[in-house]
Amino acid sequence: MNKLVVSYACIGLFIISGCAQPLSHKLNIDVKDNNLCIYTNNKSTYLSNDNYFTIFVGEYNPKEKFKSLYDKVYEDTKFPIEKNDCLTIPSNVFEENKIYKINLETNKNFSALVCISKKKPILSFKIMKPEDSSCLN
Asked: Do 67 and 54 contact (CB within 8 A), yes or no?
C-alpha cells in the first residue's frame, strides 16, 4: 500500500515538474529610430500553424484587468528572435512616466514591464518589476 502511494506521488511530481512552464518569458527591448523595438532572444520559439503572432501594450495596474492600448497582429512576418529582427512599437503609444506591460504572444508568451521617458527628443525606457508602483522606483 505504501509503495503504491509513493509511486503515485512520484508520478504526480514528475508530471507537474515536467509540464510546468513559466507563464511568461522575458521580452527584450531596445530603442530603434526613436521607437521601442522588441525581440525574444529565444531560439526555441516557433509560430503556430496559423503563422501569426500578436503584440499587446497596456498601462500596467496590477489591481485592474489588462486593457490593451495598442495591439498588432503579424502574419507571415519574420518572428523577432534576434535584435536585428526586432519589431517596433511607435513611441506615440506611450505617455511619459507610466508603467506599461508589453506582451508578445505566439506558442509562448513573452512580456516586459517598462517605464518610458521622452526627455529631450530621444525615447528611453527602464525595465520595471511587478512590485514597482511608479516610474520613480
From this structure: no
